[in-house]
UniProtKB/TrEMBL annotation:
Organism from which the protein derives: Pleuronectes platessa (European plaice)
GO molecular-function term, one example from the UniProt record: carbohydrate binding
Compositionally biased intervals (Polar residues): 30-45
TM ranges: 53-78
Keywords from the named record: Coiled coil, Disulfide bond, Lectin, Membrane, Transmembrane, Transmembrane helix
InterPro entries: C-type_lectin-like, C-type_lectin-like/link_sf, C-type_lectin/snaclec_domain, C-type_lectin_CS, CD209-like_CTLD, CTDL_fold
PROSITE patterns registered for this protein in UniProt: C_TYPE_LECTIN_1 (PS00615), C_TYPE_LECTIN_2 (PS50041)
Keyword Transit peptide: no
Designated name of the protein: C-type lectin domain-containing protein
Pfam families: Lectin_C
Disordered: region residues: 23-45
Coiled coil (residue ranges): 123-157
C-type lectin domain ranges (all copies): 175-304
Amino acid sequence: MADEGSSSSFVATFDKLICEEDSGTDENPLYSSQDKQQVSMSMQRHGSSQNPYRLLTVILAVMAVILLAINIGLGVYYNQLTGGQQTIKDIHSEVAKLQAGYNAAIQDKIDAKKQLDRELGEQKRLQWELEHHTKRSKDYENQIHRIEDEISELKSLIPLLSMGCRHCQPGWMFLHLRCYYFPFYDLPRQRRWKEARQFCQKLGGDLAVIDTPEKTVSITELIKSHHDPERSIYQGAYWIGLSDVDQETIWKWPDGRILTESYWNDGEPNNDNDEDCGATYPRNNPFKAWNDAPCNMHMKWICEMEPHDIS
């Protein structure tokens, strides 16, 4: 900007000198035309010698304009740069806000996940508790049904017991005009077939003879009603008075009669492992209630004897 002012002052001074020379020439009558011609030629040479200064002045002026434009551009650029920095600051501020919001959202998600896990854990616990109470309820229902069945069974046995009191010894049951002894409950020890028969004989009877469909149905239902369904049917087996000890495959009753009406299970008797004695089991089908078994096995047993008086 200072260079531009100096150039303008120089041009103004130069123009003033030219004007003064021109005015001095016009006012001085002492100069002849020849002198004027010489002066004119001298002025032309002087003017031609001043042309480089004018060119320099123009160049300087152009340079000044360029510098001014550069200054203006730099100022604009600086303003833009300053505004850009503010924009960057604003962006950083927004990013910081977004980051804070994101962190808060992540924390909320973590808290929600923890809460969900707690709720799921509580739901699982309640489900387990419900399953437990449901199972207990079913167990209670099964117990109620079992007790009701036992009550019905005991009611059905009342006439038999009353008849047994008239015709049978205490602890025996009157059934199909015969007296039967059933050790339904577990004894201190069970007995082998021979020992069970000796027990019955000491009481005046013998091992039971099941030789009619009515007997096998009644006795099977009776021992089945006293059998725990959660235990194996082999734990509810009873010796009866049937064996082929004297002659293999020839099954006889204690009184020597040969077996004619039988109620063997499918595939029985198979004489597996010297199975020479017969037993009845609490099966659903009373016509498949029998198995042969080794005579030295320990089982419960059924005794049978004549009633006292049936008249």
